[in-house]
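Hi support team,

I submitted a single chain yesterday and got back a structure, but I'm not sure I'm reading the token output correctly. Could someone confirm the output below corresponds to the sequence I sent? I've pasted both exactly as they appear in my results page.

Thanks,
R.
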Amino acid sequence: MKILIINSGSSSLKYQVIDYEQREVLCVGLCERIGIKDPHMTHTLISGEKVRQGKDFKDHKDAVLAMVEMLTSEEYGVIKDLSEIQAIGHRVLHGGEEFTAPVQVTEAVKAAIRTCCVWGPLHNPANLTGIEVCEEIMPGIPQVAVFDTAFHQTMPPEAFIYALPYRYYEEMGIRRYGFHGTSHMYVSQQAVKLLGGEAEGTKIITAHLGNGSSFAAVKDGKCVDTSMGLTPLAGIPMGTRCGDIDPAIVPYIMGKENLKPNEIDHIMNKESGVLGVSGVSSDFRDLAEKAKAGNERAGLALDIFVYQGKKIISSYAGALGGVDAIVFTAGIGENDKKTRRRMLEGLEFMGVELDNDKNENFNGEAGLISKDDSKVKVFIIPTNEELSIALQTVDVLGLAK
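Hi R., thanks for writing in. Yes, this is the structure output for that exact sequence:
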């Protein structure tokens, strides 16, 4: 059974074809710069063979047509024709309170996704476009929407309600929603397996660390808190996002620099985070090199990231009433051994005992990096959001029966 996974962005379209039975990715592709200068696509097979081609992507329809052509091509294809695709799973950023689980796409579902565009103005319209184009190009193939916010909908009110006049929640839906839900769900489920297989009674903190970063507190297999908020801007400072700040800073800067709402929003989302502090880069690898060479602000940016992450982990241990496991995942979480070590330093009082050799020599497979007798287990679990979307798509449609 082959499942097509699509993540449609404002000017890009990522795709994978997954063999459900084998849990194997057959190909990965990316259509970039849709509707702008120098559009092109990259298509990589399971063998590692890669092809990059310039394309004329005027819109997402052109990108989907190019994707279908590549998937069925004699030289680089992984299917003979579209009849081999059993279903399409779409990553959708924001589902609001409407969606607590993935759903099969219907007209009502599309309308609800459109309503949530106000909270995900960059992502939701593009996600919806991907769905509608696939309906046009591949009619008859069932589609499922998997929401980044869904996993976090089990949070209790004390975790998701902001201390603003309650009418803003009732009338505008302003609350904490959280993101990276598919990743947090996947790695927390894998951690449960490593802990013995029963979600009931487990207390897990997941750290999805990358250019965009978030944490989640997961109790009995369900999310009870997460660091991102109404939008992905909240929480730990990220590559270009400021994370949590004193809200009074916003009107203060706006008044001093005569900024409009969209301008301050751009600053907080695109010019802040470790980029804003360092003045060097939003890439943590660049910052590490610059800090090693003596750049103090690059070092400060990394220090802030580590410090704030340590605070979140500690606070979630309190919220959970203890912790059984801490899980690192995503680009930084899986690949930056120094950041992992530094973020855990000082947490020995919680029962965290890192095994430095295991941490230094992580081989890419899910596994333990704490000492064998550590009270709190520390795992690195590579995230696999696309596989998670495929599994959820099959489940929603009942295809595995």
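A quick pointer for reading it: The domain at 2-147 is CATH 3.30.420.40 (Nucleotidyltransferase; domain 5). Let us know if anything else looks off.

Best,
Support desk
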